Amino acid sequence: MLPNRSTAAGQDLIKELSDLKYAIDQSAIVAMTDQTGRINYANDKFCDISGFSLEELIGEDHRIINSGYHPKEFIRSIWTTIAKGEIWRGELRNRAKDGSIYWVDTTIVPLVDEHKKPFRYVAIRYEITERKLAEDRIRQQASLLDKAQDAIIVSDLNYQVLYWNQGAERVYGWSEEDAFGRHIAELLSSGDRRELEKAHQELEAADEWKAESRHTTRSGERIIVESRWTLVKNDAGEPDYYLIINTDITEKKHTEEHLLRAQRMESIGTLAGGIAHDLNNILSPIMMAADMMRTNPDGDTTRWVAMIRENAERGADLIKQVLTFARGMAGERITVNLKHLIKEIVSVLKETLPRSIKLEYEIEPELWTISADPTQIHQVLMNVCLNARDAMPDGGTLTIHAGNVAIDDNYARMNIDARAGSYLLLTVTDSGTGMSTDVINRIFDPFFTTKDVGKGTGLGLATTMTIVKSHDGFINVYSEPAKGTKFSIYLPSADEHAARTATGDGSRTARGNGEMILVVDDEESIREVAAATLAANGYRTVTAADGREAMDVYEENKADIAAVLTDMAMPNMDGAAMIAELRNIDPKLNIIAMSGMIHENQTVDLQKLGVEKLLPKPFTAEKLLTTLAEVLS
Ligand code: ADP
Ligand code: MG
Prior knowledge:
Elements: H1 8-27, E1 29-34, E2 39-42, H2 44-50, H3 54-57, H4 72-83, E3 88-95, E4 101-112, E5 118-127, H5 129-147, E6 151-155, E7 161-164, H6 166-172, H7 176-179, H8 184-189, H9 194-205, E8 208-216, E9 222-233, E10 239-248, H10 250-295, H11 301-326, E11 334-336, H12 338-352, E12 357-363, E13 370-372, H13 374-390, E14 396-407, H14 409-412, E15 421-430, H15 437-440, H16 460-470, E16 474-480, E17 484-492, H17 496-503, E18 516-520, H18 524-536, E19 540-544, H19 547-557, E20 561-567, H20 575-585, E21 590-595, H21 600-609, E22 613-616, H22 621-632
Parallel strand pairs: 12-14, 18-19, 18-20, 20-21, 21-22
Antiparallel strand pairs: 1-2, 1-5, 3-4, 4-5, 6-7, 6-10, 8-9, 9-10, 11-13, 14-15, 15-17, 16-17
The site of magnesium ion has 5 residues, from helix 13.
């Protein structure tokens, strides 16, 4: 077996072997043991990594480097493999002399005698500590991802799952083992690939996609998730994989629906009283007419039959109203003409409002249509009207108005929720108790009520807000204690004509000619927007935040001021007092009053004060400019 050192071939072989040994010693950690596992060879690298000197190692049992980390069965399986003369390969965790831990990729080669019995084991190791630590870190990070409530999923570009956290297991019921390598659509949506195609398209255009999706879990349960997809790219900027994070919002959605339903039940309850009363009014004449016909069959039966028929029809109408409420929360969107809906509400209100409340309504002709769930809009209007009723225990006037409005940026800036566009504006005005600022600030909170126990649940306006927002609309409230309240509900129009009107061309707006306008309002945003609009359209402006300040500004610029544009409700000196004082100085001064709410008697008062024009707030740039031009001409 051993090369013959004296021959040339032998010399060559020895040279080759020593070169080989040199190369191996440079790269690998090498040790040899006898068949019992006693170390009889270790190279420098072995000494380095184990921290033992060669003297300490030779003759020592190989277990001197064991870390006690691997289970007994694992160690035993190594021995059974190599004792049979087979090569074992694997990763081992060893302990150095100073107690520090290192990992080695290990190959143990048994050298066997002629009976196939190992007489020596050669172990060749490569250190992999760093790789192992990195793997541990990744495992730790992955276990953090497992703590997340969300389903976190990674798939390759063919939608094959590469990673599936425990959140995903909780949400969808599939374990990581089930999920790995499977197509995402099978796991999330029972094989329905429509959503995936949508996501795919969107991700081609942008690297992110968000949606609210309906998914199916392993057990067939339907869930609603908020889904975020990200296309992750590699260092070269090429698409690499998809990261999908899904949040289960089923519960939240149901709560919202419950809120809406509970609230609708409440308004049915409120109405039920009125309906019961109504039904009695309907049934009494029917019963009386029937009695008349029975006791007096030869009498004027046509009259009684007509009465029965008429009342039965009223009854049928009433039931239709109730059904409008009772219909479920479909959340459908259809094209709705509010005219019919308002008329329906008006007829219900006429039946149920106390006599002390006068009901007025005006629907502008050519009302734009909206895309809405009619049941929900019905609910909105009913809530606001019932609140108006409750605010007028001693009677008053309830006014419903519907019209088209185009909202420009000017207007949008006066209300944070508003966005420019064409809207249908529904206003419900009452002459009731009104509200303080404190109350106004809280009315949209669920369960906020100022009503007695059993009278109010505080859900009405919260629901109203939810519905209006889900229709991309917004609400404006204006109220003054003891003077009444105005709710303005804006719903985006679904009309094509409307879209054109909203953008407008602006050419017909009347521009100023350097005239100076004094703008007075305690609300900074309105003051600024109005002044900026005027300045951009050929006027000069001066501003003041209340009546007192306005008087000072006026004194300074008396000669130049062509018109005063003023709010009515202000601290220090209100609009009315200021106007009276201005009139004393200059009876011919042009004055425009802006107001969030205009009451009948206020109009009369303002006329008495000599106010030229009223400008209801909020207003569009066009409305402001035309009003001003009218006053100045
Ligand atoms: P609820 O009617 O059950 O009290 P809402 O959410 O409908 O609940 O209204 C919340 C509160 O807002 C009412 O309790 C009331 O104080 C106030 N509010 C709503 N509308 C008006 C109104 N038109 N006039 C005066 N206060 C109102
Ligand atoms: Mg209410």
